[in-house]
Amino acid sequence: MIYCGIDWAERTHDVALVDDTGQLLAKRHITDDAAGYKLLLELLSEYGDSEENPIPVAIETCRGLLVAILRTGKRKVFAINPMAAARYRDRHSVSRKKSDPGDALVLANILRTDMHAHRPLPDDSDVGRAIAVLARAQQDSLWNRQQLANQLRSLLREYYPAALEAFATWVNGLCRPEARELLKAAPTPARAARLTRTQLQAALKRAGRKRGIEAEADRIRDVFRADWAHQPPLVEDALGKQMLALLIQLEAACTAADQLAEAVEDAFPQHPDAEIMLSFPGLGIQLAARILAEIGDDRTRFADARGLKAYAGSSPITRASGKKSSITRRWVKNDRLNHAGYLWAFASLRASAGANAHYRRRREVGDWHAAAQRNLFNRMIGQLYHCLQHRKLFDENTAFPIAITAAA
Prior knowledge:
Elements (H helix, E strand, L loop, with lengths): L2 E6 L3 E7 L5 E8 L2 H13 L10 E3 L5 H6 L6 E3 L2 H11 L7 H15 L11 H34 L1 H7 L9 H9 L3 H5 L3 H10 L6 H12 L8 H35 L6 H5 L6 H11 L9 H8 L4 E5 L2 E5 L6 H17 L1 H12 L4 H22 L5 H4 L1 H7 L1
Parallel strand pairs: 1-4, 4-5
Antiparallel strand pairs: 1-2, 2-3, 6-7
Helix pairs in contact: 5-11, 5-13, 6-10, 7-9, 9-10, 13-15, 14-17, 15-16, 15-17, 16-17, 16-19
């Protein structure tokens, strides 16, 4: 059997082929373009690669055009963790020497000796992979929006506390279009104090507000005209210009988040698993799409529910040595899936009586809030695995039978 290892880079890649005995059969240096990909496929075909008997490939990434080319057909592509590859390199060389062709050889030998310990990339559908792209991009845009909002809040605290006070009663505060429109109309507290009722009402209408415009304009006008501390005029004007520059970035982030959310809303219902996932309490389209993006739709990806729970970081980990034993939370996990699970568990407390009762029981036995929610997420993601495997919708009586009986 032949094994292939590829040490990828931005512009060029190194390829190595070894046989069962570990003998190096061929090595190539290819470019990251169509010509290089063609040379790679010709090299694999020269050494017996075919549709019926493809050569497995090890590489230290799971995305990109090179991986997409390799995943055509039935070929198994193994995404090796770079840390695991570095540890394997130390098994055969103590001099700490390193080269790109040598790394390709290391990756090929990992498959030759330890292929059973690694999993190939899941065979997700094109629809599932497209949803994963959109859901992850939307999640990244939300994180970017929040980061920019935090920077803007920190800047406003330095010279413009009246704006923070005026927007404090609004949900999402600085990310709302009303807040952004008012900041553009009055970038400094001195200009804000001179705004009239008519100007404030016009700004709220431009932001899309439909109700309570007069009352809200009066409230904001009173806040802006209250007694506040001020920076020197020149410094205040300079800070106002800095704020407007940051506001442009925040508006772009808000627009991107909204557009990607609409794209997810359109794409996710087309997936065959959408009905099952949306039947679970606390899961809406956005959150369900994030979970699907991380677990995929390949039913053979996880051997059982325990594997999925460990991947999500919801199940605890035991460390035992001699007379000492400790049970702690998992630190090595899929952070995106773990974050989505925290939101899922929190939302299910109000959407499901059984989930709420389970959470209360965990708090009564001594769990903190985060630990109780992690335990609830651990239970519900196991139920999700069962429903997806057997193509069943969520049933409250089956999921939490004891809690429902006690409540009745």
